[in-house]
Structures are given as C-alpha cells and as structure tokens.
Amino acid sequence: MNLALGLFHFNPHWRANERSANRHCTETLGPFLHALHSNPRWRVDIEISGSGLEFLQSGYPEQIRLLRELVHRGQVELISALYTPNIWIAFPRHDLEMSIELNRRCLEKLGFPWNRIFFAQEAFFGEGVQALTEHFDIAVCKDDYLSYSYRVDLRHPCFRVGNMRVIVASGHILKEIAFRHTTDAHFDQQDLAPHRHDPQ
User: What backbone phi and psi angles, to 5 degrees, belong to 98?
Assistant: First the structure.
C-alpha cells in the first residue's frame, strides 16, 4: 500500500492584479482540478479561503462546479477555515470568530461541507492555536515554517497542543529534491531521509 498526504494551498484572488489572479485560475487551479477529475484514484486536500471560493464562483463557476463534484465524490477534502487568508494571530479574537462565521456561511451558500480542520499557514502557529478548539479539532502546519520557531521531530508528525491535534506536513522534502535534482537522476535514500535538527 502506498500512502501520501497532498495538501495544496491556493489563493486564487490573492495576487497583485486582476490579470495575475486570472492566470492563477486558468493556468494553475483549473488544470489541476481537471487532472484530478481525470484520475479518480488521486486523493488530495485543497485549502482555499471563503473569499477565494467566492472569487472563483464569480469568475470561474465551472471550476467551482468541478471542485464541488470532486469534494462530493470524496476525491478532494476541502479545507476552508477562514474567510480571508489573513494573519489570524495579529487580530482580536472577535475578528477571528467573525472570519470563521463568514466562512461557514460562504461554504453553505456554495454547497461545500464544513469541516473542523484549521490550516495554520505561513508559520502562524503557537500555543494560542489551542484557543481555536471551540471551532476546530485539527490544525495543519508546514514543517519548514514551523521549524523557524520550534524543534520539529518528523518521527512524530502528530501531537497535541492542549486539546488541539496538530499534523505537521512535510514541505521541505519536495523542495530539497526540486533544488538538488535538475535532471532525472535517481534519488538515493539520503535524498528522501527526513530532516534532522541539530541537537545543540
């Protein structure tokens, strides 16, 4: 049995201008959704904020329809925790809770299920994440961001912060492979070995 966790984070509306936002949809997200649809055995997680989903609905309704189909047939798990992909730890709790509520309404309006998974993106993670347990059961964060502030032991990528379950997703392995291999050279065991932090 081969298992892999694929989490793809899209901000289709979060671009410098409308042209680049449209390119993001037509050249990245759209082809990716069609590739998933053509390969029913693929299973992935996709994270898009509520405002990003609304952007797709207004400009690319076919992509929303396709995403909804993939979600409903169990091929895609949609993670959408906040209405905007903001620095949630920098704002008052009231603003955070409003963003969560607006996002729930957005998901309901667009026909997507709500799940209790929080995406702690861009290293926006810390002890305070346990304050979100009223709304979420699981927080997902990337190891390369998390390692800036914490010692990450990839032998134990799942742990708890208070009552919040945390899953550390490994982003550095693929990045290292991409940087170190510019040809179709065979990967040896060292290439795929988990990153080890200096014990000092």
Answer: -65, -40
What are φ and ψ of residue 168, in 5° steps? Answer: -95, 115
- Angstrom distance (rounded) from CA 166 to CA 127: 11
Q: What is the pTM of this model?
A: 0.77
Pairing relation of β-strands 164-169 and 138-142?
parallel
Cβ–Cβ < 8 Å for 168, 157: yes
Q: Where in the chain is the domain with CATH 3.20.110.10?
A: 1-115
Label residue 13 by pLDDT band (50, 70, 90): low
Question: Tokens 């759209």 label which residue?
Answer: 30
pLDDT bin (cut points 50, 70, 90) of residue 69 is very high
**Phi and psi at residue 135, to the nearest 5°:** -110, -25
Cβ atoms of 114 and 78 within 8 Å: the answer is no
Nearest 5°: phi and psi at 99?
-65, -40
How does pLDDT run across 138-152, given as a tens digit for each residue?
A: 998 877 667 666 676
* Residue 185: DSSP 8-state: P
Report which DSSP code applies to 10.
-
**What is the token pair recorded at 162?**
């208070």
Are the C-beta atoms of 131 and 163 separated by less than 8 Å?
no
What topology is assigned to 1-115 in CATH? 7-stranded beta/alpha barrel (3.20.110)
